[in-house]
Amino acid sequence: MFWADRLDSKRGQYVRDQPWPWANVLLAAETVDDVMRALEAASDYARAQLKPLARLVVKVLRERAFPRTQRAQLDFLAESLAARGEVSARRSRDICQQERLKAERGTHIISYEFKIECTCGFKGFSKVHGCPKCGARIQVGLSSIYGGGLF
Q1: In degrees to the nearest 10, what's the CA dihedral of 104, 16, 70, 101?
Q2: Chain segment 45-95, per-residue pLDDT in tens
Q3: Which residue, among 36, 83, 38, 90, has the nearest Cα to 60 in the 3D structure?
Q4: Span 99-134, pLDDT tens digits
Q5: What are the residue boundaries of the structural domains of the chain, listed by start?
Q6: For the stretch 96-120, what's the b/e string if a residue is b when 16 or more beta carbons lie within 10 angstroms of its beta carbon?
Q7: What is the mean pLDDT of residues 17-22?
Q8: Alpha carbons within 13 A on the beta-carbon side of 94
C-alpha cells in the first residue's frame, strides 16, 4: 500500500524501493489532521483503508521504537496497522514476525513410515521403522533394495 508498484520502463521491472510521495508526508504527520491531509493525495483505496486508522497512525508514529530509516519506518507502520486496530500495534508487529518465521521455516517431513509385508504375516504400515506385530526392523539403504551384492 505504501510502496509504489510502478513499472520502470528502463529496466522493465517493478520499482518497489520508492514510496509514493504521500507516504513521505504521512511519516511526518504529528496529528490526526496531518494524517488526513497526507491521505488527500493518496489513491482512493489507500484513503479508504487508512482514514479509519488515522488515530492509530499517529500513535504508531509517536512510539519510542519508531525506526529512523524511511524504509524501516514504512515497514514498521504497515506491520503496526496490519491488524487494523483489532489488537495493539505491538501485537500486530509480533504476529507479522511470527508469520515471517513460519514462512522461512517452511514445511519439512518430521517422520515417515513404510507400507510393509512382514514374515510374521502383518500387512500394513510400519511403526517406528519396524513391524508393529513382531518388532522386526526395516533395513534402510540401497543394499536392502538391490540386494547385498551391488553396494
Answers
A1: -10
A2: 989 999 999 999 999 999 999 999 888 898 999 999 999 999 999 999 999
A3: 90
A4: 988 888 877 777 778 888 999 999 999 888 889 999
A5: 6-105, 109-151
A6: beeeeeeeeeeeeeeeeeeebebee
A7: 78
A8: 5
